[in-house]
Each structure stands twice: as structure tokens, then as C-alpha cells.
Amino acid sequence: MKRFTLWATVAVVVGLMAFVIVRADARGRSGWCGHGWHRPGPGNYVAHALNLSDAQRTQIKTIWQAERPTVSARVQELLAENKEMNALAAEENPDQSKVEAVANRQASTIAALLMEKEKMQSKIYGTVLNPDQRVKADELEKRWESRLDRVANHLATQPK
């Protein structure tokens, strides 16, 4: 009797697993994730929130493609500086002047990246978005800043 119960349980589990696998494959490209498990990236989220047309998406993609080499070079620069900083930090007694020099270079690279972001944002605001979309974009930015404020306040109130 115990053997029969064991085999029946195994058969039910295998049957359920087969059902789940077939069901996941039947969903197409979603696979195991199903609907809604993965969120769209930030670009798709903003495009959806602003209700961008296909033409506007193409314009934004063109602007991004034009700025991509500059942004890529700056990110590579920042990564190299970060590796240099990590190497200095790994030393037993790092030279503070070298650490400060690398930190200053990192700061200027981050500032250059922020300038690129602002440049792209102003191009998109000025040439792609209509007035209603600009208002929505401003609201999204205010919400983002509000979230950052909450995170900063939460970090500030953490016990020491």
C-alpha cells in the first residue's frame, strides 16, 4: 500500500511539472517568466508614460545614436579611473595625493557625463516632445526626485 501511494505521488508531481512546462512553453517568448514578471527598461517606461509615437521614438533613438560614442568614451574613462582607484585602495598605505588626483578625475568625468545627459535631454525636450509630453516628463522627473529625497531621508535616519 505504501509503495502504491509513493508511486502515485511521484506520478502526480511529474504530471504537474509537465503541465507547468507545457504551459510555460505555450506562452511563446515569455517562457518561464510569463506576463508581467519582467519590467520594461527605463526607456520603454518613459516612452509609454509619455505616449511617444513611433516617429518620436525614432527621433530619440537617432539622438542617442549620435551621442552614444561620447557617452561610451566617458563611461570607459570612468571605469578606468575606478580600476585605478581600486588598485590604490588595495595598497596597504595608499598615497593620499594619488587618491585625491584619481578622485578629482572621476569627479570631472562624472560632471562630463551629466553634461551629456543634459545636452541629450534638452535636444529631446526641444525637438521631439510636444508641450503635453513636456509637462508629463516634468511630472515624471519630479516623482523621481521625490523618490530620491525619500531614499536620502531614509538613509539619514538610519541608526548609527
Automatic annotation (TrEMBL):
Major localisation: periplasm
Single GO MF descriptor: unfolded protein binding
Keyword Signal assigned: yes
GO CC entries: outer membrane-bounded periplasmic space
Record-linked InterPro entries: Cpx_auxiliary_protein (IPR052211), LTXXQ (IPR012899), Metal_resist (IPR025961)
Pfam families: Metal_resist
Domain of life: Bacteria
Signal peptide range: none
Keyword Signal listed: yes
Protein localization: Periplasm
Keywords noted in UniProt: Periplasm, Signal
Family stated for the protein in its record: Belongs to the CpxP/Spy family.
Name of the protein this chain belongs to: Periplasmic heavy metal sensor
UniProt organism field: Edaphobacter acidisoli
